[in-house]
Amino acid sequence: MRLLTVIAPALVATSLTFSAGAMAAQTVQITGLYNTGVDALGSPIADNAVDAHWSLTAAPVGYTLGNTYAAPVNGVFPVNGPWLSNTAVSRWLTPTDSAANHAPGQYSYTLSFVVTPSQLASTGFFTGRLAADNSVTSILLNQTALTVPGGTNFNVWSNFGTTSGFVAGLNTLTINTLNDAGSSGNPTGLRLEFLSSGITDSVPEPATWAMLVIGFGLVGASLRRRKAVLAA
User: Fold this and answer.
1) Partners of 55 in the beta sheet?
2) pLDDT tens-place string over residues 199-231
3) Rounded distance, CA 68 to CA 90, Å?
4) pLDDT tier at 82 (50, 70, 90 boundaries)?
5) Total domains in the fold of the chain
6) What proportion of the chain, given as a percentage, has pLDDT over 90?
7) Torsion angle in degrees (nearest 10) through CA of 96, 135, 174, 26
8) Which residues form the Ice-binding protein C-terminal domain (predicted)?
9) Average pLDDT over residues 180-186
């Protein structure tokens, strides 16, 4: 009787130690970082369709804020002449459902994503590339200015990224673009692709959850045995 009473607490301690050790941190991809012009699965959206992830947050007078739209297919002005071609990875976004002509001035495109409570915001990072008509004036992560690559334009990619500026909870990435003055046929747009991202996450993987379940199962079994011994 006495032997079982002594073994049970030891088994409990061993199981708890094992379970705690299984809670190892890991680097995971940041979810919610969507390229421009794609759906939730990363596939291109239809011509002139609304992008569900990026929104228009600033524009010259006369423009409605909110939705952003996929630019036309390759070969239809201005895509692939003079803009970079759309691909299966990303598409151009414009402030209206027609990319033919837009007023000069600043246009701002914003993407929102969440850093969960289990993730360490200070460890976040991402890299990407962008193009804009006519140029990118600033890049803001939660209103913190990131380095703007030099020479941003509509016919070449420019790389950018950050290793800081993330916060717990809701995060916003805003790309401010400038459309220069021009005659008719003066479109503006943004194209962006994320190349990599990561953040430290302490949530156990499925295999770890299985080990935790086994550990707590052993704890429960040992407690039941102890109660049976004490009752006897």
Assistant:
1) 67, 110
2) 999 966 555 445 544 555 654 555 455 555 445
3) 14
4) very high
5) 2
6) 71
7) 120
8) 202-226
9) 81
Q: Which residue has the tokens 């837009």?
A: 102
Q: What is the CATH number of the domain that holds 136?
A: 2.60.120
| Pure H helices in 86-146 | none
75 and 126 housed in the same domain: yes
Tokens of 203: 């949530």
**pLDDT score at 100:** 75
Asked if residues 111 and 93 have their Cβ atoms less than 8 Å apart, the reply is: no
Using the structure block, give the residue that is written with the tokens 């040992």. 222
Q: Please identify which residue in the block is written with the tokens 């295999």.
A: 207
Judge contact between 203 and 118, C-beta under 8 A: yes
Task: Tell me which residue has tokens 């995971």.
Answer: 28
Q: Mean pLDDT for the chain?
A: 85
Positive or negative torsion for Cα 83, 38, 162, 170: positive
Q: At what angle do helices 2-21 and 206-231 cross, to 10 degrees?
A: 160
C-beta of residue 71 within 8 angstroms of C-beta of residue 96: no
The answer to whether residues 12 and 112 belong to one domain is no
Rounded CA gap, 37 and 186, in Å? 21
Question: Is residue 106 within 8 Å of 56, Cβ to Cβ?
Answer: no
Taken in order 98, 99, 102, 107, the sign of the CA dihedral is positive
114 within 8 A of 169, measured Cβ to Cβ: yes
C-alpha distances (whole Å) from 80 to each of 37, 73, 84, 194, 220 are 16, 8, 5, 21, 65
Residues 93 and 123 in one domain: yes
